[in-house]
Amino acid sequence: MRYNTMKLFCVLPLSAIFFTSISFTHQGPKPKKVYKDTFYQFKTKPVRIAGTTASKPSVKPAELPKPSPKPKYSEVAEEDRDIAITSTITSYKIKKSAQKLYVYFGDTFKVFRISLGANPKGTKTRQGDNRTPEGTYRITFKNPKSRGYKSLKISYPNENDRKNAQRLGVDPGGDIFIHGLWWDNQDPKNHWKDNWTRGCIAVNNEQIEEIYKYSAVDTEITILP
Predict the structure, then answer these.
(1) pTM summary value
(2) Cβ atoms of 188 and 211 closer than 8 Å
(3) Cα–Cα distance, 4 to 96 (Å, whole number)
(4) pLDDT one-digit tens code per residue, 40-61
(5) By three-state DSSP, how is residue 78 classified?
(6) Which of 19, 60, 75, 193 has the CA that lies 20 to 30 A from 202?
(7) Which of 189, 119, 123 is nearest to 161 (CA)?
(8) What would the pLDDT profile of 68-77 be if each residue is shown by its tens digit?
(9) Quick check: helix, strand or coil at residue 109?
(10) CA dist., res. 21 & res. 17, Å (int)
(11) Cα dihedral 164, 169, 172, 173 in deg (nearest 10)
(12) Cβ(202)–Cβ(95) under 8 Å?
């Protein structure tokens, strides 16, 4: 009896511990601790974390100054520049394909729209072909009372032109001028829209007046295709 009582007292504490451990074991998983994330805000850019919404920056980033707009310049065709010849012309250049006469003086130039021979493509090779010559020539004579109001004679044919005509067995022709208009009914502003000369270079009467005033004999003139 006494032995059984002692045995019972020894078993009961162990049973209590066993059942206590079982009760705690079957309570389910322990809740996980939740840690609040810390957000660091920068004045220039907010921090964003996946699955969260970051607050807007308290201070807006400084805006860079906008570049000042570029000034607008009106485009003016070179032949429409407001410029006048003010000193002796030092050289002339003609671009047949553009129908333009470049007159150089001082440190600048003035451009004129021109009419050419009725057959403007190709260089002059013979009398009556209605072509404007191509090459380097000189002003040889100033005529104040020509058919084209006033005119400047060009030294065509030069040596190369004569040799070429001789090779072809033809007359190279001549009488090539820079001159004004021939007829009273010609439009001084639009005459250049039609190549109407027999091989000469034509401007309107107001323009030849200005060119003639500042031209000099023996001035070089280059005629390009």
Answers:
(1) 0.67
(2) no
(3) 138
(4) 444 555 555 555 555 555 555 5
(5) helix
(6) 75
(7) 123
(8) 676 555 578 8
(9) strand
(10) 6
(11) 180
(12) no
